[in-house]
Amino acid sequence: AAAYAAQCLFDIAREGRLAEARDWIRRLPPHALQSDVHLQLNVAWITALGEDAASVPSLIEKIRQHPQFDDGCRFLAALISSASGTFCDQPGRIAEALAGWDQLPEWALPIHAVAWVNSRANLAYLTGDYEGARQLLAQSLRSASREPGMRLALGYGDMIFGLTHLFEGQPAKAIALLRPRLELAEREVGRRTAVPAMLAGVLAGALMLRGETGQVFEVLADRLDVIERLATPDSILMAYRVLAEVSYRRGEVARALEYLVALRELGEARNLPRMSLVSLGEQVRIHAIHGRSQTACELVAQIEASAPVFESAPYRGMQHLYRRTLAHARAYTCLATSDLDGAEAALSVAADVPPSGRRGGPA
Q1: How far is CA 323 from the centre of its chain?
Q2: Exposure string over 47-59, b if 16+ CB within 10 A, otherwise e
Q3: How many helices and strands (H and E) does the chain possess?
Q4: For residue range 220-275, what is the model confidence (pLDDT) as tens digits?
Q5: Which of 40, 154, 157, 360 has its CA 20 to 30 A from that of 128?
Q6: Terminus-to-terminus CA distance in the chain, angstroms?
Q7: Nearest to 167 by CA among 204, 201, 205
Q8: How many CB atoms lie within 10 A of CB 255?
Q9: Can you say whether residue 100 is alpha, beta or left, with left for phi > 0 and alpha for psi between -120 and 50 degrees?
Q10: Alpha-carbon dihedral of residues 194, 195, 198, 201, nearest 10 degrees?
């Protein structure tokens, strides 16, 4: 029964039915979990894909003590740890998990191969190697069978591919890829599920950059809560940034700030510093544009105080994003106080980043 439960959980999850899988996990008796290492691994993998990802390292540590834990389990644990690092928005943890796994084990299933490629591509994307990420994903997305059991993994790969186009300033390419994938996923599993949630956040960002703001609320309607629970940090960031920006463009300044404050609160509640950083940077921009220089300066001080976080190993890959966000924020405060020399100096810092630190998208 435990073996059957382990396989069923895995099958349900890989189809993108994560809420259903988690409901079944809650029904499992403790003795079933204790006796089967593969059931424990599947539970850890499902836990890694969402808002509870921070609990995965302790789960993996316990699983390693199981007498059935072998080399095959070690590879699966690496994939799970990498997924957890993705949902915790920690590039350092992803790199650490993938270390030593430059090749797939001979016994690896297609789902394992796609997950392994996705993790490597996501790490490349987070460090700014967009072309490298696309090269990794191209063969995987082209050759894998788009059967229900591959839906979640391939949907995640599609999302990363779309993000690489978006951050190179090519929203039309992102829309061409993501819109049909989103429509298909909605037909197959419904609007309020994991794969549509991931794709919707990024598609909304691409639509905003194309000026198609009327479609943004349609894409995100009735699933922001699902995006928060089940989507990746990039999708969550994109959704909130887009809602704030569209509200701002409509003249709803207070509404835009509400979205940004909510994004920061979410980042703090789940220990996702990039969310807080992006929120603060955008709040500075809005307050500075509207002449609230004191508020803008106070927010810049909060960005400065977060420097040690982005110097730590899990977040070191985001240092260039931190420095550029801080430089832009300083430039806006200088402009708000008519300090043109200070603004020019800050913008020169923002421009002095390597190619991997430059992004053309909305985040």
Answers
A1: 20
A2: bbbbbbbbebbeb
A3: 21, 0
A4: 999 999 999 999 999 999 999 999 999 999 999 999 999 999 999 999 999 999 99
A5: 154
A6: 46
A7: 205
A8: 15
A9: left
A10: -100
- pTM comes to 0.91
Instruction: Give the span between the Cα atoms of 239 and 63, in whole angstroms.
Output: 35
Cα separation, 244 vs 255, whole angstroms: 7
* Number of CB atoms found within 10 A of residue 160's CB: 27
What DSSP designation does 1 have? -
Residue with tokens 């490298």, as numbered in its chain: 132
- Identify the residue whose tokens are 């063969």: 139
Question: What residue spans of 210-252 are helical by DSSP H?
Answer: 213-220, 224-230, 233-249
Which whole number is the average pLDDT over 156-172?
Answer: 95
* CA 226 to each of CA 8, 114, 194: distance values in angstroms, whole numbers, following the listed order: 23, 24, 7
- The contacts of residue 239 (CB under 8 Å, 6+ apart) are 200, 201, 204, 205, 220, 224, 227, 231
Q: Other CB atoms closer than 10 Å to residue 149's CB: what's the count?
A: 18
| HSE-CB of 323 using CA atoms within 13 angstroms | 16
With cut-offs at 50, 70 and 90, classify the pLDDT of residue 363.
very low
Determine the Cα–Cα distance for residues 199 and 128; give it in Å rounded to an integer.
Answer: 20
Give 338's contacts (C-beta < 8 A, 6+ positions apart): none
